[in-house]
Amino acid sequence: QGRMWAHTVGFTLLPHVGGFLGWFIYRREIPAWYEKLKKPAWCPSPKIFPLAWTVLYTGMGYASYLIWKDLGGCSHKAIVPLGLYGAQLALNWAWPFFFGAGNLKMAVLDILCLDCLVIGTMCSWYHLNKVATLLLVPYLAWLAMATCLTLHIWKDNPEARPGKSE
């Protein structure tokens, strides 16, 4: 019982690690750079992002725990469902590094691949645990908005693209 509690907490907190690391590394650079970018009128306030990601990371982390538990831990049955989850988590964590470095093209490529992996993860989880799958729905919805926002920023800020002369 005590060990399951540790697994629950570990899986739930794991997604926060990369999110925190990305924030920590770029916490000074992104606000000044981001403020100067042309953004669509529907762009959320920068104050919303930390709250949204805290909720989303918690939900997806707990969902991954449910899948892990239902599949009996790290068994051969878990390779695809948790492998897809791990791959999407890696791309999720990579996005701030591209965006924070001002590489909007790579940020767009990353988030488009991320969208596909999250959909693949949800498809692989659906027959295993519907609650876990439903916990990813807000994440996918937020990613849809973030994808549109990243595409708009990339399209509307050609001067911010690497290789463009100032």
TrEMBL record:
Q: Name one GO cellular component term.
A: mitochondrial outer membrane
CDD domains tied to this protein: TSPO_MBR
Q: Which UniProt keywords apply?
A: Membrane, Transmembrane, Transmembrane helix
Q: What is its main location?
A: membrane
Q: How does it sit in the membrane?
A: Multi-pass membrane protein
Q: Which locations, inside or outside the cell, does it occupy?
A: Membrane
Q: Membrane: present as a keyword of the record?
A: yes
Cross-referenced InterPro entries: TspO/MBR-related_sf, TspO_MBR
Membrane-traversing stretches:
6-26, 47-67, 107-128, 134-154
Q: Name one Pfam family in it.
A: TspO_MBR
Per the record, the domain of life is Eukaryota
Family note: Belongs to the TspO/BZRP family.
Q: Which PANTHER family does this chain map to?
A: PERIPHERAL-TYPE BENZODIAZEPINE RECEPTOR, TRANSLOCATOR PROTEIN 2
Entry protein name: TSPO protein
Tell me the organism: Galbula dea
Q: What is the lineage of its organism?
A: Eukaryota, Metazoa, Chordata, Craniata, Vertebrata
